[in-house]
Amino acid sequence: MEKISEPASAPSAAFPGRRELRKASVRERILQAAHESFTTLGVNDADLAEIAQSAKVGRATLYRYFDGKDALQAALLQQDWDKQVAIFERLAAAPVLDEKTIAAWLHRLIRATAASLSSFPIYTTSQPGSMMSRLAIQRTRLMAVLGRRFEGFATPQRVDCLLLLFQIEQFVVHAAASSDHDERSRGVAEIVQQLLQRQPRELPTPSVVPAQPKRQTRPRQVATTGDKGQSA
Asked: Taking the domain 76-203, which CATH number applies?
């Protein structure tokens, strides 16, 4: 279980101070050291004391952020999955969803997956039950993002859409590990057509609040010298 969370208050989240920046830096160093150790030695053979030394922190400091290897695994996995969601978000925010846009998105997803292939041994050593529950949460996030622009994905009962997401996942992992460009091109073209069949939606137009008309104020009348004399 990860012990130190991000600041919850809005001001410090928008404008992090020195303390928050230092915590983020320490946390990132620990994760980088853990990633190197896990991919080089394997999770089971990695030593937390060596990870702390590589991150230039004390072992007690490491335990302030993460209570063990499971927490480090979960944090590394979440990092990669957050990057994946960000790529899906870019597709959902595209002004136009056509063959070229979706194909470019798939190639971007393949490149990101290829860059994280070294992390796969880390995830395979996770507890099966824990991994399945995390995968379910991640797929729910991805379905929700796709549901903004494609019919059916926002409905959990749409098995065909879930199967298409599985197909995208499997294809992307296979394409990231393969050097067969022709096979990749055929796979991209097939998935593009399947997504286009889901009736892509237009981006919702932002609601514009009409400007309120300015209130007309009557000019203040200033009494003249002659008026003062008459009133007297």
From this structure: 1.10.357
Task: Return the CATH fold of 1-67.
Answer: Arc Repressor Mutant, subunit A (1.10.10)
How far apart (Å, rounded) are the C-alpha atoms in residues 194 and 196?
5
Domain boundaries in the chain? Answer: 1-67, 76-203
Residues 6+ apart with CB under 8 A from 67: 1, 2, 3
Residue 97: its pLDDT value, please?
A: 92
CB 153 within 8 A of CB 91: no
Per residue in 171-194, pLDDT (tens digit) is 999 999 999 999 999 999 999 999
Q: Element (H or E) spanning 98, and its range?
A: none
What residues contact 36, with CB distance under 8 A and at least 6 apart?
54
Q: Which amino acid is at 134?
A: R
pTM exceeds cut of 0.90? no
